[in-house]
Structures are given as structure tokens and as C-alpha cells.
Specification:
Pfam families: Response_reg. This is Response regulator. The chain is of the alpha/beta class. The protein has a single domain, classed as 3-Layer(aba) Sandwich (Rossmann fold). The protein has six helices and five strands, in the order βαβαβαβααβα. It has a five-stranded parallel sheet, sandwiched between helices. Helix 1 links the parallel strand 1 and strand 2.
């Protein structure tokens, strides 16, 4: 469990997944703010600088997560962003940030396929927060 309360923004249009992920991240000791769309998240970000953000990729648009990540990084360049998606299993398309070209295009610090175990997610969050 984290010893200090840091705030994590979770954005996903799958309400069940959003609730489950919020519960898991709160159990890790973090405060959680949620949004159900790119638009809602942009409104939240006007008044909140999260310590880390976990974004779905496909929400109201197929690239909502990429756009939101770009906007978040432009406003708060030091906030780590995780894109968590099931796009590969749903569409067969795969993305990643392993090459420099992909990192230039995808403004995220980590790209995860949904289904990650809570302990793995916790380790990745701590690594990105440098705890």
C-alpha cells in the first residue's frame, strides 16, 4: 500500500471496468478520480492535476485515449500516463510504445492490455510515480 495519498485519474467508458479499477487502485492506497469519457476527463483536468492517469483508448471516438493523453501531457508534461485498452483483442490491431516512433506518436508512458493483474498494475504505478 502506498503511504501517501496521491491522486490517480481513471478514464473509461466501460462503467463496470471503471468501477473495478477504481476499487483496486483505492485498495492500493491512492485517491481516485474517475471520468467516463474524454470530454468528462477534459473537464476534470481543468481543475485537477492528477499524480498519474490511466486512460482507456477507445471511448466516444476510437482514438479518444490518444487525444486525451496528448492533451493531458501538453497541460501537465510531468504526469505519467498509462493507456489501458483491450483494442488488440477487440480489433486485432496492436499498438505499443516500444519504438521511438511509437513514443513520438503515442504520448503515454506505458501501454497495457486490459486484464493486467492488480499486483502488476500496482508495481507499474509505483514505478511511474517513482515510489
Amino acid at each position: 500500500m502506498a503511504t501517501n495519498k496521491r491522486t490517480i485519474l481513471i478514464v473509461d467508458d466501460d462503467i463496470d471496468y471503471l468501477f473495478q479499477l477504481k476499487f483496486q487502485v483505492e485498495k492500493m492506497g491512492f485517491d481516485v478520480v474517475t471520468a467516463e469519457s474524454q470530454h468528462d476527463a477534459e473537464q476534470v483536468l481543468k481543475n485537477l492535476k492528477p499524480d498519474l492517469a490511466i486512460l482507456d483508448l477507445m471511448m466516444e471516438n476510437e482514438d479518444s485515449g490518444f487525444i486525451l493523453s496528448y492533451k493531458l501531457k501538453r497541460r501537465y508534461p510531468d504526469v505519467p500516463v498509462i493507456i489501458a485498452t483491450a483494442v488488440s483483442s477487440e480489433t486485432g490491431m496492436s499498438f505499443g510504445i516500444s519504438s521511438e516512433q511509437e513514443r513520438q506518436w503515442i504520448k503515454a508512458d506505458l501501454y497495457l492490455e486490459k486484464g493486467i493483474r492488480p499486483d502488476q498494475l500496482h508495481r507499474e504505478i509505483l514505478k511511474l510515480l517513482k515510489q
